[in-house]
Amino acid sequence: MNKYIEQVWTDVQAKNPNEPEFLQAVDEVFTTLTPVIESNKAYQQNAILERMVEPERVIMFRVPWVDDKGIVRVNRGYRIQMNSAIGPYKGGLRFDPSVNLSVLKFLAFEQVFKNSLTTLPMGGGKGGSDFNPKQSPHTPGKRCSDAEVMRFCQSFMTELFRHIGPDTDVPAGDMNVGGREIGYLFGQYKRLANEWTGVLTGKGLSFGGSLIRPEATGYGDVYFAENMLAMRKETFEGKKCVISGSGNVATYAAEKLMQLGAKVLTLSDRSGTILAKDGITEKMLQDIMVLKTVKRGELADFAKKTKAVKFFAGVNSWQVTDKIDAAFPCARQNELNGKDAEYLLKHGCQLVGEGANMPSTPDAIAAFVKAKIMYSPGKASNAGGVATSGLEMSQNSERLSWSREEVDAKLKGIMKSIHDNAWEAAAKYGQKGNYVMGANIAGFTKVADAMIAQGVC
Fold it and tell me: In sequence order, what are the beta bridge partners of 313?
């Protein structure tokens, strides 16, 4: 870091001492920006870094709702509107007990760069609640009923609706916010605003959703990785891949990898990891998708009924097999640490494609960059989801519905553009092949230049 970046970093630490996730995200970006900051003094003169780390708006509110026993429950809701320099705020809603201000500020900060990289006119935001749809408030071990989830979503949107809009802020789904939750949220927004607009993305196909949207983040992660391999004249044919997670991102990444000839060995969830030595089959993957999206079960249940897999309770995907060509962390932040990175590298891993937001810890990232393997940060390789959300916004605005092939082709094109922009930005500053630096610089400069053009605001 140069002196200007160090000064801003010191101030950020002093102002946000209890926000480790946010500080980690800022540090990861700041450590790569020295070349571009030193080559353009206007960024310092216009206090771009100081402005970029401060959200334009932080909204925090009470969410009261009534459970199935008639008991009043209270959760906390948030919306972080981080930066609107290049378009309306855009970013998901996360419902999970881990949600707090630090987590959402880190996600919103990452979203600014991710959305910039998509080439679409979208600013960055993020939101959610500490509500847990996976745990009934009155029955241990049971999930919230559909009626409880609906009542929570309606209460959440009753406050949020006044802060969002198709040209202001367009939320989407994120962890534990899928088609069911988006449907309830959209219905309440429509009731309160008395209008039908594309204010939420990830909607059902029957009311304005886009084809490929559920698959987009996982597919996009693999498309980005495919572009990295192409730089070395390689393909996925025959490669052994480990994946963490078993939600949309992980399962659709697995599906696309299998279509490209790769062998997917693992998936995981909070109960543990399944390992299929001979590769997860198409039938197994479909069963897992049904288990997670319809039955809302766990992989431990799947493993009991499937002899072809071995189950590792409470273990992640990184250290359960000894031959690994590629790894795809698709679960949550900081799930892959330095020891995991060491294991992956020792056992032949040459590619890591992040499907989750900031899933690798700083020491893991340092190990991957030092080893000069193909490593893509989440802000680049998991941008397929928000890119397709942007395409959904376009379809809603035009009152059109594009075919699966059209959306998939546009997604592929966007992921190639993100890859190429990151590659070229890194090469420009003497770091050829360093996708971390390339993605940060490419995302940063577009937003920074827009902020300068718009004056001090």
Answer: 272
CA distances from 114 to 50, 228, 306, 449 (A): 19, 18, 38, 16
168 is written with which tokens? 């202001």
Local structure of 6: helix, strand or coil: helix
pLDDT above 90 coverage of the chain, percent = 99
| Summary mean pLDDT of the chain | 97
The structural domains of the chain, ordered by start, are 1-53+434-457 (1.10.285.10), 55-195 (3.40.50.10860), 215-372 (3.40.50.720)
* Cα–Cα distance list, 390 to 81, 90, 123, 213, 214 (Å): 17, 9, 11, 10, 13
Task: Give the pLDDT band (50/70/90) at residue 1.
Answer: confident
- 246 touches 288 (CB < 8 A): yes
185-205 tens-digit pLDDT: 999 999 999 999 999 999 999
Say whether pTM exceeds 0.90: yes
Q: Which of 90, 105, 126, 239 is catalytic?
A: 126
Phi then psi for residue 69, to 5 deg, are -95, 0
In the residue annotation, 126 being an active-site residue is answered as: yes
What length does the chain have? 457
Separation between Cα atoms, residue 349 and residue 122, nearest integer Å? 34
